[in-house]
Specification:
single chain; eight-stranded mixed β-sheet; four-stranded antiparallel β-sheet; 24% helix
Length: 483
């Protein structure tokens, strides 16, 4: 049997600043430096033409990109005319006066090429502040975070525990049985050294992960049951309890806002972007749209909200069948994100779009599946579940709260319910519309080209208060018996 190689620990760090790679031997370190940190020859006059200046011995040049500018964006820009016409093109970037909340500024170029420029909302502009909500002068650096020891891996006892947990849980998605087997193997190997493995078993690993402070928001559960009038023959669905699992959407928004990886890819204020060459409007990210600007106009009517950052909550749901042959199991996930993160972050699976709930799916036998009471209960359960899940956002939709953002600054933030992404069937449930009717207007499907009134909240409330439920259903496609 040939001799076996001994295991070598990762003990050689890369000396280039900013690189965190470690290597087992000098050969691997050399290949890494040649491929990722090459030393390029310096082109220029020959040594006979100009003497080279003396240089102290140093490491090869660091050719990594320069650090990104972490300075906070300009704070405040004035509102464009109400007819949505673009403001005059600026001759150079104009910074606001930090001593005035509403500076008479025009616009700011988005880059050095001066191809596009933006105007920002002058009221809800996300001004940095202190932990008590007092606004900071423009250009003030972020408040330092509480220091943490470099060897503090709590709740893990050391780096080995953290790396083992990340490898087993995140990279390999190891099952509980395999985790227990691995821990037993490590325990048998370390017994002769009077040492123990990082974790006792899979339960110990999961408990430590759950104790991590900067982790996922904990799951909660509530049950719902029919409480209305009962017929003589009670259908089985009236006695059932339906569980709804959810996570606090407010804590979810806190995690996204506080994520330092988003600090350069997040917008704290609504803005309008224009092409400097022909003054045409440009839309890209959520905060560049008209809804965010108009919502900021509505919220900023309260002077106490001035200087806050608008946090739109974007929701979405999609009932999904996960198995057919083994029982036709279905899940009803509820997704959430915030409108401040840019599109490239939300689409790149960087935890800016998270699941905050699993809605209940009431079912019954075929005899009662088409009963009016069951259909009403199913719709009412959907709306009541959303109301309960989003209840933590209600207090901070009218009064701001102060929290630390990913760039290190504290900001006043105020929330607003934004768009709900859903297919046609779920749009009907959300808007209480009869099937085959349009959720946006009252046009009938036999005359889609005719004039039709758009559905608004005021118009819908007026119809429900004035008309009978049968007329609402037949003439306007509205379901008026939901609370």
């Amino acid at each position: 049997m040939p001799s076996r190689c001994a295991h070598h620990l990762l003990q050689l760090p890369c000396p280039v600043p900013g690189c965190s790679r470690w290597f087992r031997n000098q050969s691997g370190l050399t290949q890494h430096r040649r491929s990722l940190h090459p030393t390029l020859p310096v082109s220029g006059p020959s040594p006979q033409d100009h003497p080279r200046p003396s240089r102290s011995p140093s490491l090869p040049r660091d050719l990594s990109p320069p650090p990104r500018d972490l300075s906070p964006p300009p704070r405040d820009f004035s509102l464009p005319p109400p007819d949505f016409s673009p403001p005059p093109r600026p001759s150079s970037p104009i910074l606001p006066d930090p001593t005035h909340e509403d500076s008479n500024t025009n616009a700011e170029f988005t880059d050095a090429s001066e191809r596009c420029y933006r105007t920002f909302h002058s009221k809800l502009n996300g001004r940095p502040c202190m932990a008590d909500g007092t606004f900071l002068p423009h250009g003030t650096p972020p408040t330092p975070a509480p220091p943490k020891a470099p060897n503090d891996w709590s709740p893990y006892r050391n780096r080995i525990e953290f790396e083992a947990a990340e490898f087993a849980f995140k990279r390999c998605h190891m099952s509980a049985r395999n985790l227990d087997f691995l821990c037993d193997l490590m325990a048998a190997t370390l017994a002769k050294h009077h040492d123990t493995p990082p974790f006792t078993d899979h339960k110990d690993l999961h408990n430590v992960i759950d104790a991590t402070q900067l982790g996922d928001v904990p799951w909660q559960c509530f049950s719902a049951q029919y409480t209305g009038e009962r017929p003589e023959v009670v259908p089985p669905w009236m006695d059932e309890e339906f569980e709804v699992w959810y996570r606090d959407p407010r804590a979810m928004a806190h995690n996204i806002l506080a994520n330092p990886t988003y600090k350069d890819e997040i917008d704290y204020a609504p803005f309008r972007e224009y092409d400097a060459s022909d003054e045409t409007r440009r839309w890209k990210d959520f905060m560049s749209g008209d809804w965010a600007w108009q919502q900021a106009d509505t919220i900023s009517q309260d002077p106490e909200t001035h200087g806050s950052a608008l946090i739109p909550i974007i929701l979405g749901s999609d009932k999904t069948t996960v198995s057919v042959g083994t029982g036709n199991n279905e899940y009803y996930p509820l997704y959430a994100s915030i409108g401040n993160v840019r599109n490239n972050v939300r689409r790149a699976h960087r935890d800016a779009l998270v699941i905050i709930g699993f809605l209940a799916i009431p079912k019954t036998d075929q005899t009662h599946s088409k009963d009016d009471l069951f259909r009403i209960f199913r719709r009412q359960l959907f709306h009541s579940s959303l109301s309960a899940i989003l209840s933590s956002l209600k207090p901070v939709m009218t009064e701001y709260e102060v929290m630390r953002c990913g760039d290190g600054h504290f900001r006043r933030v105020i929330y607003s319910l934004g768009p709900y992404i859903a297919d046609y069937d779920e749009q009907l449930v959300l808007s209480c519309i009869v099937k085959h009717w349009c959720p946006k207007c009252i046009a009938v499907r036999t005359n889609l080209d005719g004039d039709a009134t758009y559905r608004t909240r005021e118009f819908t409330d007026f119809l429900i208060n004035e008309l009978h439920a049968d007329v609402l259903w037949d003439e306007f496609g509205l379901i008026g018996d939901l609370v």
